[in-house]
């Protein structure tokens, strides 16, 4: 089966673009890969071939970010799970690596989980120069694997013996975190014990785990994440699930508590498995206090691949009149993908002048940043991938009358709204007011020739404080140095 799949892809004439060399390892040498396929993201990570779903054990180690993910290298649909692996030095440009966890080599079902770097060697597993990287997987009990070569290959701990005994009919998706208050490790595992919820375990050595408590919530389903976020000189804990629902609360080293009666959402879209946002995890062992998250976008596919990751975002807690909320913004490293920039400033625009403003702009993959005074507007927005006949692949709309951004509430700040939009070949991500709104979408930006325009539209009148459009180059090939074109401010 494997040999026939590789042969079929090779005969199909799929060409490689600046890949790592094909590496022989036990199961699956990837075929050469065409990263320029029409709807494959040019700055969103996707696997060279096969199926990709949940983000697993994202972590940082000695200058390198590691992204593991649920992976079926043999086909374009979910099947026998492996852990795929990719690395980056900037969270933007990724390099595919050989499979990290593989059925037949590593015991268990190898489903979703998290991981950490054991910098203090509390496991006692260190034998050389590298700190152990310890990852957790398995359903209905937790299995442990560890790497002594910087996260490339993994050894089964205790021959695959489960370090956590299941307490429920179904449990899965262990995520490990450090609690500085108790100076112990915590593990959060989803289970259906009496309904949806998570079980918390604690450990001093990452290998021996004791049940600590349970947090029950009907909304909390699959792939939990538990992360400590700064807030106004202190910290609070954020507990979230696969769909991006979350609550903010406290963790006393044993139990999580929250005064919230219901969750908020990190990503304000229809978050579901196979959709545009699911199963996000935050990176562990980052060198600073920043919090970085990536999720699975399952609604995009090509001829030899299915699914991709969202563009990484930085997350933080922000106090609002309604209470603390998680806000998300693209990581600043996105600047490394910019190849050209155009800027417009201080323009008063009505419907006609707004439509004419970007008449000469042509772009395939790009980033829009805009700050707009909407006090005299009914609505405004951007038409993406327009064609001369007026067609557009997707519109992003701010409705000033209802104070909503594509249907999500977003109030102006002193009369102004800030938008940030990432447009890739099959992915669209929209941010409002520095991350108060965060939306991920799968959109097939596959316009006919000539369909690469961008249009600003206005009902009423706006004061355009600033508008910047960055062309974003492919992360799969070398890009030239950025250039800057600044338009003269208008009246």
UniProtKB/TrEMBL annotation:
Residues 44-319 form the Glycosyl hydrolase family 32 N-terminal domain. SMART domains: Glyco_32. Residues 333-471 form the Glycosyl hydrolase family 32 C-terminal domain. It comes from Kribbella sancticallisti. Keywords: Glycosidase, Hydrolase. Belongs to the glycosyl hydrolase 32 family. This is Glycoside hydrolase family 32 protein. InterPro entries: ConA-like_dom_sf, Glyco_hydro_32, Glyco_hydro_32_C, Glyco_hydro_32_N, Glyco_hydro_beta-prop_sf. It comes from the Bacteria.
């Amino acid at each position: 089966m494997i040999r026939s799949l590789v042969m079929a892809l090779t005969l199909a004439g799929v060409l490689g673009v600046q890949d790592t060399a094909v590496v022989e390892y036990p199961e699956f040498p990837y075929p050469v890969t065409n990263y320029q396929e029409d709807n494959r993201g040019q700055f969103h990570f996707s696997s060279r071939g096969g199926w990709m779903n949940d983000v697993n054990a994202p972590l940082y180690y000695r200058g390198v970010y590691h992204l593991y993910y649920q992976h079926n290298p043999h086909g374009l649909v979910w099947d026998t799970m492996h852990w795929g692996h990719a690395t980056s030095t900037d969270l933007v440009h990724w390099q595919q690596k050989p499979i990290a966890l593989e059925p037949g080599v590593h015991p268990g079902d190898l489903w979703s989980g998290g991981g950490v770097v054991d910098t203090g060697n509390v496991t006692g597993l260190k034998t050389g120069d590298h700190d152990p990287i310890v990852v957790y997987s398995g359903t209905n009990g937790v299995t442990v694997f560890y790497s002594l070569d910087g996260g490339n290959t993994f050894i089964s701990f205790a021959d695959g013996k489960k370090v956590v005994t299941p307490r429920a009919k179904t449990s899965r998706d262990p995520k490990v975190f450090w609690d500085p208050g108790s100076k112990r490790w915590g593990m959060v595992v989803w289970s259906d014990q009496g309904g949806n919820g998570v079980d918390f375990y604690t450990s001093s050595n990452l290998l021996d785990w004791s049940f600590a408590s349970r947090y029950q919530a009907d909304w909390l389903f699959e792939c939990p994440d538990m992360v400590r976020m700064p807030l106004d000189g202190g910290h609070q804990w954020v507990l979230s699930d696969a769909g991006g629902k979350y609550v903010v609360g406290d963790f006393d080293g044993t139990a999580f508590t929250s005064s919230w009666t219901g969750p908020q959402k990190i990503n304000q879209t229809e978050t579901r498995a196979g959709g545009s946002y699911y199963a996000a995890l935050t990176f562990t062992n980052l060198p600073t206090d920043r919090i970085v998250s990536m999720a699975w976008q399952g609604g995009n596919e090509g001829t030899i691949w299915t699914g991709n990751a969202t563009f990484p975002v930085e997350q933080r807690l922000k106090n609002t009149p309604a209470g603390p909320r998680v806000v998300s913004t693209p990581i600043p490293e996105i600047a490394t993908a910019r190849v050209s920039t155009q800027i417009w400033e201080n323009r008063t625009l009505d419907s006609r002048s707004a439509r004419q403003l970007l008449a000469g702009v042509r772009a395939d993959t790009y980033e829009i940043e805009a700050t707009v005074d909407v006090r005299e507007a009914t609505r405004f927005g951007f038409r993406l991938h327009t064609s001369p006949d007026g067609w557009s692949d997707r519109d992003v709309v701010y409705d000033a009358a209802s104070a909503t951004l594509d249907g999500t509430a977003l109030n102006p700040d002193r009369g102004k709204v800030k938008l940030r939009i990432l447009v890739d070949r099959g992915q669209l991500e929209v941010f409002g007011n520095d991350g108060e709104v965060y939306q991920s979408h799968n959109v097939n930006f596959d316009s006919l020739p000539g369909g690469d325009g961008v249009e600003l539209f206005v009902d009423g009148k706006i004061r355009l404080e600033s508008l910047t459009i960055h062309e974003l180059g492919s992360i799969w090939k070398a890009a030239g140095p950025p250039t800057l074109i600044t338009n003269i401010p208008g009246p």
